[in-house]
Design brief:
With 59 residues, the protein is an alpha+beta fold. It has a domain of 33 residues. 12% of the residues lie in helices and 14% in strands. It has 1 helix and 4 strands, in the order αββββ. The strands form 2 sheets. A two-stranded antiparallel ribbon has the order 1-2. A two-stranded antiparallel ribbon has the order 3-4.
């Protein structure tokens, strides 16, 4: 069974986990209504994507 010979230091552990931090959410301004929205997605306030009206999904 593989067991580490030495204890992992705080700095080595931090270097290994450096890419695990949460990324900041990037918001783009909707060109139609000016509200902040996620890029490449339908605007939640005006239901438009690339200038076209997208009807909401009905279940």
């Amino acid at each position: 069974m593989a067991v580490p010979k030495k204890r992992t230091s705080h700095s080595r552990k931090g270097k290994r986990r450096s890419h695990l931090a949460l990324k900041k959410i990037s918001l783009a301004k909707c060109p139609e209504c000016g509200e902040p929205a996620l890029p490449h997605r339908v605007c939640p306030s005006c239901n438009r994507y690339k200038g076209k009206l997208v009807l909401p999904f009905e279940s």
